[in-house]
Bile acid:sodium symporter family protein (Variovorax robiniae), 345 residues
Amino acid sequence: MARSRFLPDNFTLALVTTVVLASLLPASGGPGRFFEGLTTFAIGLLFFLHGAKLSREAIVAGVTHWRLHLLVFACTFALFPFLGFALKPVLSPLVTPEIYTGVLFLCVLPATVQSAIAFTSMARGNIPAAVCSASASTLLGVFVTPILVNLLVVPHGGGGAGSALDAIGRILLQLMLPFAVGHFARPWIGGFTKKHAPVLKFVDQGSILLVVYTAFSAAVIEGLWKQVPISALLGLVVVCVVLLALALTSTTWIARKLGFDKADEITIVFCGSKKSLASGIPMAKVLFASHAVGAIVLPLMLFHQIQLMVCAVLAQRYARRVEPAAIATAPLVNPAEAAAEATAD
């Protein structure tokens, strides 16, 4: 029997299990250093494989739709940070200061890639534009996110990030260098990554689980769960729901006001309202002190699951619309396939 779209996916269950394991058996001392080194290697491998899977043709396919891309980038790197700060007086009392720092970090992250494209396809949106916008958002985030972290997040309790140039340098070295090497190696290994995509997906998810384990191990040793009451966790659910609702409403309203057609509206909604777990967790490890990462990524992990459930419902609603046959020829994606594709993004 098919799993309900409202139930957590396997990767989310694995994330929860990893957090529980780190809470009960945190890695410290020698084992902690071993897991730190293993995590650094796994993140490099993760971005190497992402580079190998990225097609230049797919990016070029939608690059000329500049109005759409500018709007997506504005929603990702301007609207979200604005919402995070504008709502701080209302939402921050619901959580601890450390967790709201994580909310601000969530707001400055790039958009997802796999899930944005999967849901755009499922909803019969502009798929080439989604590929271009989502991929470009990830690359742009390498430079924009560290700057926004230093401007908006660090003054409010982030700590450990240093200057924007130092942060960009660390991300370029630890994330983008493996990504670039993988992309330039695509002519030789692209076929292998495509053929073994189901197997390589475990590398993607496994590297994220390693980061979560090491991050929460350090945070637990520093007393994370003693500092985070149950009321703050419940408050975080409210914060994430409010942020996502405002982002979805705003992107839909702006797209319609600016005269975009329905296919472009879908792309703007799914690319401009989502935040990347796959990019955010490795960035947090690079940008913040080890003991702070657990609380920093907690909002992102929760927001990730909420956005998947809500966007799956929204994509199916878009897909049921009646339009001319020429538009309806866009490929459909089965909801289960879309969820499977999106889980680690």
In short: The longest helix spans residues 290-319. Residues 10-320+327-342 form a domain with the Na+/H+ antiporter like fold fold (CATH 1.20.1530.20). DSSP finds 18 helices and no strands in the chain. The chain has one domain: 10-320+327-342.
